[in-house]
């Protein structure tokens, strides 16, 4: 029976470090306010002319492919999760394909925001289980900083979101006792406007106009209180769903890697599930919320730091815009 295993992971972060003190020069905020509400001390923002979503994804992918011990040509499908593509169309999957010299293979784009990587991972898992593909490159990459409203009005979201890329290689195996055990995907469109970027939208008479730009509809809009209340509920639910499906308990988790949305959310879930500090991986303190990229970046860093070893039970979980939420359980 074919199963999916993560054979390699990689990540890339822009060189530009933006501290909370840097933000205090742009808007009415301060380090204490940001840390208390988000846990973030600094984040990475891209450098125009140097970083693109494609270039960051390429760097992360090269690292992941190398760590998987294969060559580029062994990749037979790409799934790219992002809500900040370099072009409106086409999606970033084909741009990454071109950069990696993989012309001809399929490339699929996923737009599920913060849960995008787990949606992409689930799709990869299904393709591998059916035998359609053997090595799938799954990528999450974002440039959020160029869409942020960097003044007092937008500070609640401007202090959170950041830029970066992560990638994993999912490969087919028949080896017993390893692989993705299950994935779980959910969404509730009733809350779509609680966390969204309204424009440019195709249903407008004119997609881009000065009136729309002046209205602020091209900036990220987030109802932070609503997002937090739903996140802490759905995170716990979808993790427990994954555990129950596989007859496991929270104590069986060797490492939980939650989407890095807000340190307070991660700590709340950790407390509710009675997990130790060494059972939960967080890096939002240094990188902020890179949306679809947070989980693959965290996977890559966890492996680098020897926090994941063969045989470990690793749980991934995410919640974000849509609202959409997801989880995955992996026997490493």
Question: Care to describe what's here?
Answer:
With 332 residues, the chain is an alpha/beta fold. The chain contains 11 helices and 13 strands. Strands 1-7-6-4-5 form a 5-stranded mixed β-sheet, with helices on both faces. It has a 4-stranded mixed β-sheet with strand order 8-13-12-11, with helices on both faces. The chain is globular, with a radius of gyration of 19 Å.
Describe how the helices and strands are arranged.
Elements: E1 3-12, E2 17-19, H1 20-24, H2 31-38, E3 42-44, H3 53-68, E4 77-81, H4 92-99, E5 106-110, H5 116-129, E6 135-142, H6 155-158, E7 164-173, E8 179-187, E9 195-196, H7 210-215, E10 221-222, H8 224-245, E11 255-258, H9 263-272, H10 284-287, H11 294-304, E12 313-320, E13 324-331
Parallel strand pairs: 4-5, 4-6, 11-12
Antiparallel strand pairs: 1-7, 2-3, 6-7, 8-13, 9-10, 12-13
Helix pairs in contact: 3-4, 8-9
Task: State the main characteristics.
332 residues; alpha/beta; five-stranded mixed beta sheet; four-stranded mixed beta sheet
